[in-house]
Design goal:
This protein has helices at 44-52, 73-76, 95-103, 112-119, 134-146, 164-179, 191-197, 215-220, 264-280, 295-302; strands at 4-15, 18-29, 33-38, 59-64, 80-83, 152-156, 183-187, 200-205, 208-213, 224-229, 248-252, 255-262, 289-291. The chain is of the alpha/beta class. The radius of gyration is 24 Å and the shape is elongated. The protein has 2 domains: 4-219, P-loop containing nucleotide triphosphate hydrolases (Rossmann fold); 223-305, Alpha-Beta Plaits. The chain binds adenosine-5'-triphosphate (ATP). The site of adenosine-5'-triphosphate has 11 residues, from β2 and α1. It is found in: Cell membrane.
């Protein structure tokens, strides 16, 4: 069995003259959760639609479970679960009836109670779809996407509109499914969701992938930051160079703050050098702190830089 669940190579999609996806490539291994992140309009949904088989790749190659998801839709589609952004429920059916209705369409469906539990909707089994909260509707969407025991699950902003508890529960459910071998392609605007769940991710901006890899790889290349307020009697020019990195200085209301951005391997020796330098001069370094770069830092500097 091929180990690659999704392969996208040099995908290009145009709307008229506008190239919404401009040569996107990525691969998702079986059993992996891959997050596609990006600014509004970056091309995530357009990419997802090509991978789900809703639209043909205009140029480039898309393979899902080794097949073309558009041309070989009948073979591929039953093996996919797609959580829709806006589920089209029948307003008057209850949660349980909606699930049963859906179970009628697929071969070998998951049992209704298992789906209610996966979605955390057991207590809402008898509630009509129109009376569910926004977050509960999204959870029902998730249950429906899981009905046919998919091998690959597509989650397009799954936790948008959920309260923090429902979001947490949904993420836990997804993490458990991935642990059990499910492959997931996720888009989200919650960077902490990607940070928590993704084995690997890609950040898209204006139709292109601008960063990709594991969270550690994407964030790691960005460096850790050491900061402190420059003591009043220390000239900025006297600050040490740490592992070849000079201090960046920001001045706010007459106070200078020094920041060193160090590669991860240089963090410990860099901090040690700084503390020794301060010790030798009997200096206190007010407000000293070390921050890891976060996915948000990378996102803002790669995807957000020109917007
Ligand atoms: N049917 C369409 N006709 C013309 N332009 C479109 C169409 N669908 C999308 N676009 C444009 O293509 C670009 C990519 O849209 P897409 O929905 O793929 O982005 P996205 O990354 O999913 O954005 P968001 O995070 O806002 O959902 C956007 O500039 C959008 O306006």
């Amino acid at each position: 069995m091929e180990n690659t669940a999704i392969r996208v190579r040099e995908l290009r999609q145009r709307y008229g003259e506008f190239e919404a996806v401009a040569g996107v490539s990525f691969e998702v291994a079986r059993g992996e959760l891959f997050a596609l992140l990006g600014t509004n309009g970056a091309g995530k949904t357009t990419t997802l639609e090509a991978v789900e088989g809703h639209r043909a790749a205009q140029s480039g190659e898309v393979r899902v479970l080794g097949r073309d998801p558009y041309r070989e839709r009948r073979a591929v589609r039953p093996r996919l679960g797609i959580m829709l952004q806006e589920g089209g429920f029948f307003a008057d059916l209850t949660t349980a009836e909606t699930i049963d209705h859906w179970r009628g369409f697929v071969e070998d469906p998951r049992p209704r109670d298992e789906l209610l539990d996966l979605a955390g909707l057991r207590e809402q089994a008898g509630v009509r779809a129109r009376q569910l909260s926004g977050g509960q509707k999204r959870r029902l969407d998730l249950a429906l996407a899981l009905t046919g025991r998919p091998e690959v699950l597509f989650l397009d902003e799954p936790t948008t509109g959920m309260d923090p508890e429902a979001r947490h529960a949904t993420r836990r459910t997804v993490a458990e499914l991935v642990r059990d071998g499910l492959t997931v392609l996720l888009t989200t605007h919650y960077l902490e969701e990607a940070e928590q769940l993704a084995d690997r991710l890609a950040i898209m901006h204006r139709g292109r992938v601008v960063a990709s890899g594991t969270v550690a790889e994407v964030v790691g290349g960005h460096g850790d930051r050491v900061r402190f307020r420059v003591p009043p009697d220390v000239p900025v020019a006297d600050l040490p160079v740490l592992r070849g990195v000079a201090a960046g200085i920001e001045v706010d209301a007459g106070h200078a703050t020094a920041t060193y951005t160090l590669p991860p391997d240089d963090l410990q020796p860099g901090v040690y050098g700084l503390l020794r330098w301060a010790d030798e001069r009997s200096l206190a370094l007010p407000g000293l702190r070390v921050d890891n770069a976060s996915l948000e830092d990378v996102f803002l500097s790669t995807a957000g830089a020109e917007s």
